[in-house]
Design goal:
FAD/NAD(P)-binding domain, oxidoreductase, 410 residues, alpha/beta, 2 domains, FAD/NAD-binding_dom, FAD-dependent oxidoreductase, 25% helix, FAD/NAD-bd_sf, 23 strands, binds flavin-adenine dinucleotide, 7-stranded mixed sheet, disordered C terminus
């Protein structure tokens, strides 16, 4: 039996385990007596927001080096069922062994997954939702120089012009050119964004859109708007408007949904499959269960609901972990109160764009400010400290902001 059992080793789960540990340590009077466990199938935290980058295999942090030093036990398994009455989780280890893990308080932080379409040739679609998928795409691109020459060899179609689609499309221009150049084919590189809406970045705000459009023009990213993909055959991508694009690479980015495990919790869920939680991130109507990250439909500032984002997953995890431990100790819970909403969208070699607030006001700054900000987010802020228990517990405090000052641009 674990005092706090956290399901999922992403941003929300890692910080939930750290925050629960922090509070339990702070209140221990004698030898440490409380147990916190993290149940997750893989040994690493995957830096998911960076999976559009060229070398995804290195975008991970070993969970044991982060949580091991503070005594969090890692259980390598996938949760398959949750009995919220008996307070037990059924889990399957990588070797197929099934076990039952009992808990006193549970934090559900099993994240989300891209919703892949069902259409002929869908298996040929790449995505960058998980580390293995991003590595598969990187391997596929690296093999292109050896692939037979012909139409579409250096063309990539990206489906979905939302946040992820824009980041991978703009990045693919440089990645494909670097691979094509030694073959004398840099000029043949084509990246085409296919989007069902009539505009790119429909959810990213009207102020950011002109910046995004300029960046796409600068990089030569083509757009096919108001249409979608209907079929793929490995040589070409067929669109609903009747046109065909010769392309050897296609990447699907549209739509995310909360982990299927949320269906195991007898509570209301929203249209994205996220569990309804109260201000303290307790799952509504289920004793002893909290939700955080992409599995939680929590209230954010100004009547908004959190987005499935790293920006929200980290503070959600800290509050859920803190409150799960507080409940055990008979302490009052704290309410989730996120920092003001911001975005920072990478635009590859064309820079980046940053907005603030839910109406997405463009953030002005010196030349290169947004790109520098994105670099700070990707390379520093989202990475948890490894082998540094003091720093981990300091940052696990829900009152400590994730953001640090941005270094001035040259
Ligand atoms: C390409 C890309 C770019 C992104 N860019 C940004 C960005 O710029 N800014 C931003 O804020 N957000 C961004 N996001 C979104 C962000 O990555 C997610 O919102 C964030 O990772 C959510 O954290 P999480 O801990 O809830 O879930 P995840 O990071 O998805 O982690 C879930 C964890 O649960 C584990 N798990 C799943 N099922 C089970 C199970 N049944 N049992 C046990 N463990 C399980 C998984 O293995 C994983 O360890 C991006 C996402 C992608 C894919």
């Amino acid at each position: 039996m674990f005092d706090v059992l956290v399901l999922g080793g992403g941003f929300a789960g890692l910080w939930a385990a750290a925050a629960a540990t922090r509070l339990l340590h702070a209140t221990e009077t004698g030898p440490v007596g409380h147990s916190v466990a993290l149940l997750t199938p893989h040994p690493d935290l995957v830096l998911r927001p960076r999976l559009y980058e060229p070398d995804p295999a290195r975008l991970r942090v070993p969970l044991d080096r982060v949580l091991g030093p503070v005594g969090v036990r890692r259980i390598a398994a996938t949760a398959t069922a949750v009995d919220t009455v008996r307070r037990e989780v059924t889990a399957t280890a990588p070797d197929g062994t099934r076990s039952t893990v009992a808990y006193r308080r549970l934090v559900v932080a099993t994240g989300s997954a891209v919703v892949r379409p069902e259409l002929p040739g869908a298996a040929l679609l790449h995505d960058i939702d998980t580390l293995p998928a991003a590595v598969r795409l990187a391997d596929h691109l690296r093999a292109l120089p050896e692939a037979p020459d012909g139409p579409g060899r250096w063309t990539a179609v990206v489906v979905g012009a939302g946040f992820t689609g824009l980041e991978i499309a703009t990045e693919l221009v440089g990645r494909l050119r670097a691979l094509a150049a030694p073959c004398g084919a840099a000029d043949e590189v084509r990246v085409v964004l296919v989007e069902r809406a009539e505009v790119v970045g429909a959810g990213l705000g009207t102020e950011a859109r002109p910046v995004i459009t300029r960046a796409l023009d600068e990089l030569g990213v083509e757009r096919r708007l108001g249409t979608t993909v209907t079929r793929l055959d490995g040589r070409a991508v067929h669109l609903a408007d009747g046109s065909t694009l010769a392309a050897r690479t296609a990447v699907w980015t549209a739509g995310m949904r909360a982990s299927a495990l949320t269906a195991q919790i007898p509570a209301p869920r929203d249209g994205l499959g996220r569990l309804a939680v109260d201000g303290a991130l307790r799952v509504r109507g289920v004793e002893g269960v909290y939700a955080a990250g992409d599995t939680a439909a929590a209230a954010a500032e100004g009547g908004h609901t959190v987005l499935q984002s790293c920006q929200h997953a980290t503070p959600l995890g800290k509050v859920a972990g803190h409150n799960a431990a507080a409940d055990l100790l008979g302490l009052s819970p704290v309410d989730f109160a996120p920092d003001p909403y911001r975005t920072c969208l990478d635009l590859g070699a064309a820079g980046a764009v940053s907005t603030i607030g839910w109406n997405r006001t463009l953030r002005e700054g010196p030349e290169g400010f947004a790109k520098e900000l994105k670099r700070a987010i990707n390379e520093t802020w989202i990475s948890p400290p490894a082998d540094d228990p003091q720093e981990l517990l300091r940052r696990a405090d829900h009152r400590v902001a994730q953001r640090q000052p941005v270094p001035p641009t040259a």
